[in-house]
C-alpha cells in the first residue's frame, strides 16, 4: 500500500465531468433512440427483450460471475451454478474464469499498482481501455484454480457458444411473436446487440464511476464508493464501497433501503434450499480481510 494520498480528491473538475459524460451520453442516446424510433423498429416487444434480457443476464453477472465465482460468497447447487454462469456468459464480458481472475486482481490491488482497471490511470483506462492493454491474467494460477471446477471449465470453454445463444434467443422469441424475419432481426438487434452494449457500460461503470462518485461509509484502503444509480442499473453492484469493505459478503446492499436485487435472488434461492453457506456482512471476517488474503495469494503466485 502506497503512503501517497490518492489523487482523486484534487482531480480537476473537468476530468470527473468528462468521465460522467462518457458514461451518461451513450446511455442517454440509447434512450433517445428508443423514443425516437418508437413504433418504427422498436416497440414493447423489443423493449421487453432489452430490459428483460439485461435483467436476467446482468443479475447472473452479479450473482454468478461476481458473488459466487469470484468471491465464493455462497455455495450453490450445481444446476444453479451452471445456469448463473451460462447466463453470465451471454453478457459477452469474457469467460467466467477469466472475468473472475481479473476481478480478484482488482480486489487484491484496488487503486494501486497491479489493479487491472483503476481510474487512477485515467477514466478511459478504468472504464474500457484496460480491456485492450492489460489483457487479463489468463493462464495465471488463480485462473487455473477456478477452472479446476468442472462446471466452470465446461462453461468457460463454451463462452463463444453461450454468447451467441444470448444473441439468438431474443431473435427466436421475436420470431415466435411476429412470425417474420425482420421481426426476428429486430429482436436480435435490441434484445441482443443493444442489450450487450448497455450491459457493458453498466458493468464497467462499477469499475469507473463507483471508484469516483459516491459516499464512502466504510474507510476502505481504496477509492470504492457507494453509487445509488450504478446500484440501481447494476442489480446492487453499485454499493461498491460496501463491497470493498466486505468482499465475501453475498449481500452488497447492507441497509434495507440499499436496493440490491442480487441479495433478493440469493435469499429466495436460499429459502428454496438451492444455495447455502451464504456469507453476510459483519458476520464473517473483518473488513478487507479477504482482500488482504487475496493480495497475499497473488503475491505468492
Ligand atoms: Zn472496485
Ligand atoms: Zn468484487
Kindly report the spatial arrangement of strands forming the biggest sheet.
Answer: 1-2
Query: What is the alpha-carbon Rg in Å?
Result: 19 Å
Bound small molecules, by name, code or SMILES, are:
zinc ion
Give me the strand/helix succession.
HHEHHHHHHHHHHEH
How does the helix and strand content classify structurally?
mainly alpha
* Shape, principal axes of CA atoms: globular
Tell me how many strands there are: 2
In this structure, how is the largest beta sheet organized? 2 strands, antiparallel
**What percent of residues adopt helix (DSSP H or I)?**
55-70%
β content, as a range?
Answer: under 5%
N- to C-terminal distance: 18 Å
Describe this structure in words.
This protein is an all-alpha fold and 301 residues long. It has one domain. 61% of the residues lie in helices and 1% in strands. It contains 13 helices and 2 strands. The protein has helices spanning 13-37, 44-70, 78-89, 96-108, 123-133, 141-146, 150-157, 159-178, 181-207, 228-233, 240-245, 261-271, 289-300; strands at residues 75-76, 275-276. Strands 1-2 form a two-stranded antiparallel sheet. Helix 2 packs across helix 3 (78-89), helix 4 (96-108) crosses helix 13 (289-300) and helix 8 (159-178) packs across helix 9. The longest helix is centred in the first third of the chain and has 27 residues, at 44-70. It binds zinc ion (ZN) (2 copies). The site of one zinc ion has 6 residues, from helix 11.
Amino acid at each position: 500500500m502506497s503512503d501517497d494520498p490518492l489523487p482523486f480528491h484534487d482531480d480537476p473538475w473537468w476530468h470527473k465531468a468528462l468521465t460522467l459524460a462518457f458514461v451518461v451520453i451513450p446511455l442517454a442516446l440509447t434512450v433517445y433512440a428508443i423514443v425516437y424510433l418508437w413504433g418504427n423498429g422498436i416497440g414493447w416487444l423489443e423493449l421487453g427483450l432489452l430490459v428483460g434480457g439485461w435483467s436476467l443476464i446482468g443479475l447472473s453477472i452479479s450473482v454468478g460471475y461476481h458473488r459466487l465465482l469470484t468471491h465464493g460468497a455462497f455455495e450453490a447447487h450445481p444446476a444453479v451454478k451452471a445456469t448463473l454462469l451460462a447466463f453470465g456468459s451471454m453478457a459477452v464480458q469474457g469467460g467466467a474464469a477469466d472475468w473472475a481472475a481479473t476481478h480478484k486482481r482488482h480486489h487484491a490491488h484496488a487503486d494501486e499498482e497491479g489493479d487491472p482497471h483503476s481510474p487512477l490511470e485515467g477514466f478511459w483506462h478504468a472504464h474500457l481501455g484496460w480491456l485492450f492493454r492489460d489483457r487479463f491474467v489468463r493462464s495465471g494460477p488463480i485462473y487455473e484454480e477456478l477452472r479446476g471446477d468442472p462446471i466452470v471449465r465446461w462453461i468457460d470453454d463454451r463462452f463463444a457458444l453461450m454468447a451467441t445463444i444470448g444473441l439468438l434467443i431474443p431473435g427466436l422469441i421475436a420470431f415466435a411473436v411476429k412470425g417474420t424475419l425482420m421481426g426476428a432481426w429486430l429482436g436480435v438487434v435490441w434484445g441482443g446487440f443493444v442489450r450487450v452494449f448497455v450491459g457493458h457500460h453498466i458493468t464497467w461503470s462499477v469499475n469507473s464511476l463507483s471508484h469516483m462518485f459516491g459516499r464512502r461509509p466504510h474507510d476502505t484502503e481504496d477509492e470504492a464508493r457507494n453509487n445509488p444509480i450504478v446500484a440501481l442499473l447494476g442489480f446492487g453492484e453499485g454499493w461498491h464501497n460496501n463491497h470493498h469493505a466486505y468482499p465475501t459478503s453475498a449481500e452488497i446492499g447492507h441497509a434495507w433501503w440499499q436496493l440490491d436485487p442480487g441479495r433478493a435472488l440469493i435469499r429466495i434461492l436460499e429459502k428454496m434450499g438451492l444455495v447455502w453457506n451464504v456469507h453476510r456482512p459483519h458476520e464473517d471476517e473483518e473488513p478487507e480481510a479477504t482482500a488482504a488474503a487475496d493480495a497475499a495469494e497473488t503475491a505468492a503466485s
